[in-house]
Amino acid sequence: MTKSSKLKKEQVLSSVDIIVSQSDLDGFIIYANPIFYKIAGYNYGELIGENHNIIRHEDMPKTIFNLLWEELKNKNEVYSLVKNRCKDGGFYWVFAHIRPSFNKDGTVRNYISTRRAASQKAKSIIEPIYQQLLEIEKDNDIEFAKEQFKEFINRNRYQNQSNNDVIYNIQY
């Protein structure tokens, strides 16, 4: 966590809050539900047409989004733990499930993301890993950071679990 993050207020999602958004193939928001606006601190409609990285928090390693987009481009769903930035500079943690939506011909139409509150357990496990990745990224070594995150996933894998299963188990 950066020093500035410690000074900013965390918005905490309740156990029933579900943030939903859709983005086009380039990550531009085409739908956001009311809870997304409420938690992120934007006025209704303000996020439409904005790139999803408008809420990317500085404490989030680029590596995580790089891996996330690799999976989505391969038509795979992704579970991820994400720290997002609020409009006022605050932040909120989510456990995200992002998946492609398909046209009848099998091509990807857009991406749908549903997000719930990240558990305290998940945050305590993932924050130090993300800090390590940020340090590696300072040397502009995204490939090494990706390898390090994959090693973290492998250390936490039980038998033949998928990467998504590992993230799910960290959350719960």
Structural account:
- With 172 residues, this protein is an alpha+beta fold.
- It has one domain (16-171): PAS domain (Beta-Lactamase, 2-Layer Sandwich), CATH 3.30.450.
- The protein has 6 helices and 5 strands; from the N terminus they run αββααβββααα.
- A 5-stranded antiparallel β-sheet has the order 2-1-5-4-3.
- Strand 4 (91-102) and strand 5 form a beta hairpin.
- Helix 3 crosses helix 5 (142-155) and helix 4 (120-137) runs antiparallel to helix 5 (142-155).
- The longest helix is centred in the C-terminal third of the chain and has 18 residues, at 120-137.
- The chain is globular and about 40 Å long.
- The two termini are 22 Å apart.
- The model has no long low-confidence stretch (mean pLDDT 95).
* Sheet with most strands: 5 strands, antiparallel
From the coordinates shown, what is the CATH architecture? 2-Layer Sandwich
Q: Quote the beta fraction.
A: 15-25%
Number of helices: 6
Mean pLDDT: 95
Number of domains: 1
Q: Bin the helical content.
A: 25-40%
Unreliable stretches:
none
List its traits:
Beta-Lactamase, five-stranded antiparallel beta sheet, 23% strand, 172 residues, 6 helices, alpha+beta, single chain
Topology diagram in text:
Elements: H1 3-7, E1 19-23, E2 29-32, H2 34-40, H3 62-73, E3 78-85, E4 91-102, E5 108-117, H4 120-137, H5 142-155, H6 163-171
Antiparallel strand pairs: 1-2, 1-5, 3-4, 4-5
